Amino acid sequence: MTTEIIRMPRQPLILIVDDEEDVRDLVASNLKRVGFATMEAPDGIAALRMARQKTPDAVVLDVMMPGKDGLAVCAELRADNELRQIPVVMLTARGMTEDRIAGLMRGADDYIAKPFSPKELVLRVQAVLRRAVAQPDAGMELRVGPFHFDIAAWKLTVDGVPVELTFREFRLLHLLAANKGKVLGREAIMSEVWGYADHTRTRTLDTHVRRVREKLGNNAEWLQTMRSFGYFFKDPQDAASPAAPVGAR
Q1: How many whole angstroms separate alpha carbon 56 and alpha carbon 188?
Q2: Contact at 8 Å (CB) between 204 and 110?
Q3: Which terminus of the chain faces fewer neighbouring Cβ atoms within 10 Å, N or C?
Q4: pLDDT tens digit string along 62-107?
Q5: Domain 13-132, CATH among 3.40.50.720, 1.10.630.10, 3.20.20.70, 3.40.50.2300
Q6: CA-to-CA distance for 71 and 6, rounded, in angstroms?
Q7: b/e string for 105-144 if b means 16 or more Cβ within 10 A?
Q8: What span, in angstroms and rounded, lies between the C-alpha atoms of 109 and 4?
């Protein structure tokens, strides 16, 4: 992953949510330095109100807040049809694996632990935005077996039944389906879907895969694992071996 901070050609709006004013100021000053616009909320209730009034391009969201915490805010964003595609970077003092997984399970796109490097935070926000702004042309779709991806609307139906996916889950499953029968390495997937390839962060990918499988129910076997390497999309009734792995380290 490059360590160069890229100045954005336009001014995306970032909502910063943290009950500590000095943290909000630190995050805002570093994001503004590279061309972002920011707005700040001191708690979860204010954050949801502001997000609905002026849809941000991304949210930097603290987990540990009084009242409505970051996990609850993230869950509400993902449940709102108008806001569900907004990338969310969780900002937390917690370092336990189960706490990070809890954030990802609520729909967060990435996380960074306090104390954090302001430069890393900027890079992570830019990474989630790069993936979010790469919108497909209207009318594009993909059909693979019972799966129908409406790419313009970011919607998936399986055998005609809608499957509710977050923005990142949709991108992940669509990438694998578009490469049906081809094994994609974890870092190749991370680079394409999250905008960076970092082998220390592949738990993020594994958590998303597990969540997608749960949502697919009886069709979960289409999403298969190549042990110690990555994932591939394949008809479970097809006995043919998948194509050679892509993105090997």
Answers
A1: 28
A2: yes
A3: C
A4: 988 988 999 999 999 988 877 888 899 998 876 666 666 777 777 8
A5: 3.40.50.2300
A6: 29
A7: bbbbbbbbeeebeeeebbbbbbbbbebbeeeeeeeeeeeb
A8: 21
